[in-house]
Specification:
- Strand 19 and strand 20 form a beta hairpin.
- This protein has helices at about 5-10, 30-45, 75-85, 85-110, 130-140, 170-180, 285-295, 340-355, 360-365, 370-390; strands at about 20-30, 50, 65-70, 115-125, 145-150, 160-170, 185, 190-195, 195-200, 205-210, 230-240, 250, 260, 265-275, 300-310, 315-320, 325-330, 410, 415, 425, 430-435.
- By secondary structure, it is α+β, with helices and mostly antiparallel strands.
- Strands 3, 4, 5, 6, 11, 12, 13, 14 and 15 form a 9-stranded mixed sheet that branches. Strands 1, 2, 7, 8, 9, 10, 16 and 17 form an 8-stranded mixed sheet that branches. A 4-stranded antiparallel sheet has the order 18-19-20-21, with no helix packed on it.
- The chain is globular and about 60 Å long.
- Bound molecules: flavin-adenine dinucleotide (FAD).
- Flavin-adenine dinucleotide binds near residues 59 and 214.
- Keywords: 2Fe-2S, Iron, Iron-sulfur, Metal-binding.
Amino acid sequence: MNSLWTETARIPGRNPLPGNRRTEVVVIGAGMAGILTAFYLQRHHIHVVVLEADRIGSGQTGYTSAKITSQHNLIYGKLVKTVGEETARLYGKANQLAVEEYGKLIRRYGIQCHYEEKDAYLYSVQESEKLLKEAECARRLGLPATFERETKLPFPVFGAVRFSGQAQFHPLEFLRDISSGLTVYERTRVLKVQGHEVITNRGVVKADKVVFATHYPFINVPGFYFTKMYQEKSYVMEIGPVPSIDGMYLGVDSKSYSFRNAGDKLLLGYGSHRTGSIPKENPYIAMEQTAKHLYPDVEVLGKWSAQDCMTLDGIPYIGTYSVLKPDWYVATGFGKWGMSTSMAAAKILSMQILGKRTPYDEVFTPRRHHIRASAKTLVSHSLKSVKGLSGGVLKGAVNCPHLGCRLVWNRYDKRWECPCHGSSFEINGKISSNPAQQSIPFID
Ligand SMILES: Cc1cc2nc3c(=O)[nH]c(=O)nc-3n(C[C@H](O)[C@H](O)[C@H](O)COP(=O)(O)OP(=O)(O)OC[C@H]3O[C@@H](n4cnc5c(N)ncnc54)[C@H](O)[C@@H]3O)c2cc1C
């Protein structure tokens, strides 16, 4: 599967790990989170090696919509209710600073990545009440939020929350430049981590600290991330030519769309569902019909899907991997907002590795327990996992190599998907998304 980004950016290839090595920090994974973390560590004169199973940006970062924003759907009202005003304020501040940091980096290093400042909007075609409340809550938390009655979308809305001064870019052009001075070994899969030894298919790297920036952390014990995270899939369609809609948009009603321009094209996003819970409606057909309805002369130029890790309380896990592994760090659970949160993670983890505290450590620590915010998701995640696992023992089931759940066929995407933890595999069984780390034998 290709995306607009994978089709249009050429990132120079890197060699695999040429044998055993010693370094201060190993970062596993060369997506947005891993590359930014390595970049800030290197800026602080730490010796870093990045190990990537495939290619730089070949994971979910290559398939994102690449909006850089602290506007994460209707999160602020929810966070105030479930984790309190102070934690919600710090969550917003970490992400808003991350948005601004992208602008600073891109200007400072002259990175050519189609970076454009844009306002971000949450819109509804059904009601304005919850948007008014969200705008008011976000403003109280210090975010650049206003409530608007009109937008440049090609249909009327009831209202919208506008966050000013946000941005969009080409994520792989950005990664190409920001990774250029880093030591990255591609086609080097980490198989095991034993204490300070990172064991790959190409050799062993010994390190003082290890960062897991692998989208989904693949070591199950300790950490137990598989018990506190699931994945959600969404679909993207590239259409054009389309006039500017002057902003980045996300609908809050059910069955609504995400919009952003990319030059004279438009990226439509649609159809969120738990990976492995296949919807009845074909999302690509729905998107094409909507595209043709809104823009009758438009052509479909591309389509793809992506998935992201969802935590129980809606806040990413950034910090030490487990109390039992104080020298292991993790950045995951970005909830489809991994552009700003990868930057926040990179800043937080690089400080923690330098032995410094940040005001955001407690907000994102994987060790937190927000019972009120997590209970409902925990119950439904556990039920789905038990169902998937029990299906795995049935005769004739195609099982996931991660923990043995029964895989489900996604007929729209032509992939096998795990309903428990979200691993996915191409039609021929080749692994396409973790936490599984190996392919499944060829399926006829
Ligand atoms: C449809 C969709 C649209 C989205 N749009 C937006 C958006 O507009 N704005 C936004 O902020 N966020 C968005 N997101 C979320 C965002 O794309 C992700 O959160 C982000 O890309 C995750 O980056 P990452 O570095 O954590 O993971 P990845 O990019 O997946 O990187 C992880 C890397 O680790 C490597 N790896 C895995 N296991 C190993 C191993 N054992 N050894 C070595 N390497 C390994 C993988 O090969 C991969 O390259 C969207 C998500 C979806 C699903």
